[in-house]
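Model it.
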Amino acid sequence: MRVGLISDVHANLQALHVVLARLEEEGVERLVCLGDVVGYGGDPEACVALVRERASTCVMGNHDAAAVHPWVRRTFHSSARLAVEAHSGWLDVSDLAWLADLPATARLPDPGPADLFLTHGTPGEEAPFTYLLDEDQAARALGSFRERFAAVGHTHVPACFHEDAGRDRRVRRRGLRPPPSGPEV
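Modeled.
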């Protein structure tokens, strides 16, 4: 089964449409969202509706949490706080309830293609939305889930961390590039 991962939509409906079209072209059979459906962009209602309709699994991002929990907004810089406050007012009760019910983590299979742990922030961190940016953080995160793979949102920077099976058990970062053709979003 081909699984498509999306993350950090941030209410950008145009980009979401482009990405979903590309995933469909690629033959993705199941869509998973790693959080932050709302925040910043101008179409939170439409993005929530589309992700609710298309994603089989979605975890809560920090902007999703802030839309339903005002105390989370205190950690945001002013423009992010203003956007999420506006989105909270624009969303209807069922959309807010959907955001509030999103889990912090999820696991595939349920059924799924491989052992996959899903979260928005760094696995194993005490603060729920820590950015996973480097090999040291990735190495610490490896012991916090039992699945073979993890998918993490939040950073807005694509990366792949893997553990070498050699003697030193070192975690390394591999950068990801967009596919050779098609839109870059």
